[in-house]
Amino acid sequence: MQPIQLFDLASRQAEWLTIRQQVVAGNIANANTPKFRAKDVTPFDAVLDRSDIAMARTNPAHLSGNDFSDSGDIDVKDAALDQEIGIQESGNTVGLAEELSKSGDIKRQYDLNTSLVSSFNRMMLMTVRK
Q1: Which candidate, 46, 51, 29, places its Cα nearest to that of 38?
Q2: How far apart, in whole angstroms, are the C-alpha atoms of residue 19 and residue 24?
Q3: Is the pLDDT assigned to residue 108 strictly greater than 90?
Q4: What is the mean pLDDT of the chain?
Q5: What is the pLDDT of residues 41-71, one digit of tens each?
Q6: Rounded distance, CA 38 to CA 80, Å?
Q7: Residue 92 contacts residue 34 (beta carbons within 8 Å)
Q8: Which among 31, 35, 36, 43 has a CA at the least distance from the CA of 105?
Q9: Could you tell me the residue ranges of all domains in the chain?
Q10: Residue 43 CA: distances (Å) to CA of 19, 67, 123, 129
């Protein structure tokens, strides 16, 4: 029996979402701190590319797989400069509207992740019962 990688993938995304939420919360908390530079994390696609979770290609029409290495680091880096607000007089680069939007997106991704794992778990339990 092959291992089910959906749970590994969901766990990895939950870890990434946790770190991203911490970074976004830090940005919001420092919105009025002079010379504070907004931060963000590497996109989940990049984290997934560096993880040991390989996606299966079951049809030639599907996207081809990548070579995955063992390092799955989630990097925190300076965020791209928000073109709407730019650099404020205090030297701060945090845009509250953008950060709150990121926070809402993180919540939606958490909800989707949880729903998928819950549905898959129910499906697995139904097959075991029969």
Answers
A1: 29
A2: 9
A3: yes
A4: 78
A5: 888 877 666 666 555 656 666 544 333 333 3
A6: 8
A7: yes
A8: 43
A9: 6-129
A10: 12, 18, 30, 39
